[in-house]
Amino acid sequence: MNPFEYRNGELHVEDVRLSQIADQVGTPTYVYSRQALLDVYQRYVDALGDHPGTVCYAVKANSNLAVLNLLAEAGAGFDIVSGGELERVLKAGGKPEKIIFSGVGKTRDEIRRALEVGIACFNVESISEIDHLAEVAAECSKIAPISLRVNPDVDAKTHPYISTGLKQNKFGIGIQVAEEAYLYANSLPSLSVKGIDCHIGSQLTDVSPLLEACDRLLELHDRLVQQGIAISHLDLGGGIGVVYRDETLPSIADYFAQVKEKFGDRQLAIFCEPGRSIAANAGVLLTHVEYLKMTRHKNFAVVDAAMNDLLRPALYQAWQNIQPVLQAADDAEVKSWDIVGPVCESADFLGHDRELALQEGDLLAVMSAGAYGFVMSSNYNTRGRAAEVMVSGSRFQVVRQRESFADMIRGESVFAG
Ligand SMILES: *Cc1c(COP(=O)(O)O)cnc(C)c1O
Q: Looking at 91-190, which runs of residues are DSSP E strands?
């Protein structure tokens, strides 16, 4: 289902006109479709079928409480990368026993809190982290469930900034030394080895690197079993990529079918940590055109959303479709526009060379903005962060207020001398 479609020349999300949301809430505003979020989550659940395992939504893709609560109620687990994300999941009604904790830099305080609430598993990324975890668990008289995040040295063939499974990346424990690391972890009484984890990158449009990583993990699994180390789950890391433009993507069902086939008769649960694929195409960023600025070389449409609201174009040269909320008349003049924000950086653009018929005051929707959108926003240029809205059928609700000036300076003070 595409929740974003034109009806009578007007872009809707589910049964709500985007122009109505802009009128009532203002812009820039992120808008999420409840149905779209659930649909993709359900595709992962269906792909898992009756195989034991958990779909752990990667919270960092979109951590709004309404999104987390929706997925928690649907039965999702969660993959977190900070203590802040842990508190968000708990606040949103997520169950601690379905939380896995990833990330290269967990602090002792974060570890302590996660042990106290009783999360399902720590995905451990280094030998030093094994030691920290063992120490903190012993101090709290707990046994920490762990899997080691293995770096399988597989090229995910995605943007270098979101490629994480090569030996030059900071992530995980090298596959060559993983066996030794497992033997060491297994010897520590305050740790309990549960699984093997990897995450080789994001926005993968081909499953072959994922399957190659899976093969390497299974080889490691078999060696560990020979060493007497019991493993109960394999964690495949993030989900598959999404369509931003014209990408062709493997189906989630096919990917999982191939993984299960590789498992053979090994008794292993499947964990996965999809973020982008669940949230990206469930959201748009609404923005108004403030100024049209024509120069001899370029046409610029200056909009009220900027790189502080949506960083992906500036950070990854990412392409996201930009559509008018009201379709232009057939005879309206189409020109090539750079859609840019008001921030004082030349990297502040949302799209280059877009063929659109634009006028000042037009409302635009930046598509596929539900993942790695709001969560990466900042107050750069002292711009308050955007509002967030969730739509269900013909109803919508502000699920995060637009940030005010008072919000932005909360905690600041002038030096008293
Ligand atoms: C970012 C991340 C994910 C989510 O990846 P997507 O491509 O958004 O599905 C999963 N696991 C880990 C460890 C991550 O860092």
A: 99-101, 121-124, 144-151, 173-174
- Give all domains of the chain, ordered by start, each with its CATH number: 4-32+280-409 (2.40.37.10), 103-272 (3.20.20.10)
Q: Which helix (H) or strand (E) holds 302?
A: strand 299-303
Instruction: Assess whether 198 carries a catalytic annotation.
Output: no
Distance, CA 23 to ligand 1 centroid (Å)? 35
Q: Which amino acid is at 329?
A: A
Q: Is the CB of 165 within 6 Å of ligand 1?
A: no
DSSP calls for 20-43: HHHHHH-SSEEEEEHHHHHHHHHH
pLDDT at 207 over 90: yes
Query: In the predicted model, is pLDDT for residue 379 greater than 80?
Result: yes
Q: What is the pTM of this model?
A: 0.97
Most informative mutation of 41, 55, 78, 79 for ligand 1 (most atoms within 8 A of CB): 79
Residue 226: enclosing H or E segment and its boundaries? helix 208-226
Mean pLDDT of the chain: 96
CB of 149 sitting under 6 A from ligand 1: no
